Amino acid sequence: MENLPNCPKCNSEYTYEDGSLLVCPECGYEWNPETTVDESVIKDVNGNVLNDGDSVTVVKDLKVKGSSSSIKIGTKVKNIRLVPDAADGHDIECKIDGFGAMKLKSSVVKKA
To answer: Where is the Protein YjdM N-terminal domain (predicted)?
Structure first.
């Protein structure tokens, strides 16, 4: 039996070949083992690469679920933490003054 790599999305060891692609039966992810695309790169609304510990600025007002207040445009968020494989699209974890721990989408922030 061949030694195939684990799935890059869910780290499953049960990958198999389907033509020139590798397939994960657990999450359904398909990839070409010949290409080395770094999908874990997270970019802001302007296309700048974000890193752990960066500071970002919110580019539009955001409604906060379960709260009557919202995060206003221009709010600066310091010391972000990136979560590359977030299933819900919220790929930034941070703490915002007055709100506490939050998850944000990279599509609503710009690098400060």
So the answer is: 4-32
What CA–CA distance (Å, rounded) separates 54 from 45? Answer: 14
**Structural domain containing residue 59:** 55-111
> pTM score, two decimals?
0.64
Question: Which CATH number goes with the domain that contains 22?
Answer: 2.20.25.10
Residue 17's alpha-carbon distances to 8, 27, 96, in angstroms, are: 14, 15, 45
Flag whether 93 is in a domain. yes
Spell out the per-residue pLDDT of the chain, length 112, in tens. Answer: 468 888 888 888 999 999 889 999 998 888 888 765 555 688 999 989 999 999 999 999 999 988 889 999 999 999 999 998 787 889 999 999 989 999 999 999 999 9
**Residue 50 counted as domain residue:** no
